């Protein structure tokens, strides 16, 4: 029988199977890094039945304008002083009910940490880097106060305890012991950081 001319045909039927297996391999083995983001509680779907009256002195206002300037309690403030001002507000203990507060007990400032609220408002044209820096300074104020109380009660920093508690590799028995301590410190200085509606520059 005479031999037919031309190049021999290549059976490509299994190529699709190989490509599919490679695709599955890369999907399974590839890790995608994700940002942790900001830990914030959203407001409830339904407003509370009782109208809660908040005294103005229990609200620490922080405004960021379009140029990245800070107005803290209506005073132009350098961002390096923001954390100290926030600590002074949170730790004030104006009504005398806070036995662990070490502030000035100024009657014109916050009554106690449980009532103290930090209100942050920014302009739509505020740079994201400035916004994050301000957020970090405010959270650092809470962490410094929590670290102080954790050292007083448990001889270790709160941030270390919280990191260990949130670590997925921490044994369950250790987590249960840490949970009570972490929640106790959080109640001493609850993080009440509210973001007001963003303003628009004219």
UniProtKB/TrEMBL annotation:
GO molecular function, one term: transmembrane transporter activity
Source superkingdom: Bacteria
GO biological process, one term: protein transport
Keyword line: Cell membrane, Membrane, Protein transport, Transmembrane, Transmembrane helix, Transport
Family: Belongs to the ExbD/TolR family.
PANTHER family to which the protein is assigned, alphabetical: BIOPOLYMER TRANSPORT PROTEIN EXBD-RELATED (PTHR30558:SF3), EXBD MEMBRANE COMPONENT OF PMF-DRIVEN MACROMOLECULE IMPORT SYSTEM (PTHR30558)
Protein name from the UniProt record: Biopolymer transporter ExbD
Organism: Costertonia aggregata
């Amino acid at each position: 029988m005479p031999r037919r001319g031309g190049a021999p045909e290549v059976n490509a039927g299994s190529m699709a199977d190989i490509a599919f297996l490679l695709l599955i391999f890369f999907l399974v083995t590839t890790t995608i890094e994700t940002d942790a983001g900001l830990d914030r509680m959203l407001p409830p779907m339904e407003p509370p039945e009782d109208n809660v009256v908040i005294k103005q002195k229990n609200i620490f206002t922080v405004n960021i304008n379009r140029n990245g300037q800070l107005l803290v309690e209506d005073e132009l403030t350098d961002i390096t002083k923001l954390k100290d001002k926030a600590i002074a507000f949170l730790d004030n203990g104006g009504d005398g009910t806070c036995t662990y507060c070490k502030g000035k007990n100024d009657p014109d400032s916050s009554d106690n940490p449980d009532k103290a609220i930090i209100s942050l408002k920014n302009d739509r044209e505020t740079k994201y880097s400035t916004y994050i820096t301000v957020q970090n300074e405010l959270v650092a104020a809470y962490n410094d106060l929590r670290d102080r109380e954790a050292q007083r009660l448990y001889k270790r920093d709160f941030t270390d305890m919280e990191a260990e508690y949130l670590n997925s590799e921490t044994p369950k028995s250790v987590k249960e012991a840490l949970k009570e301590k972490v929640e106790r410190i959080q109640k001493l200085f609850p993080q009440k950081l509210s973001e007001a509606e963003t303003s628009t520059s004219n």
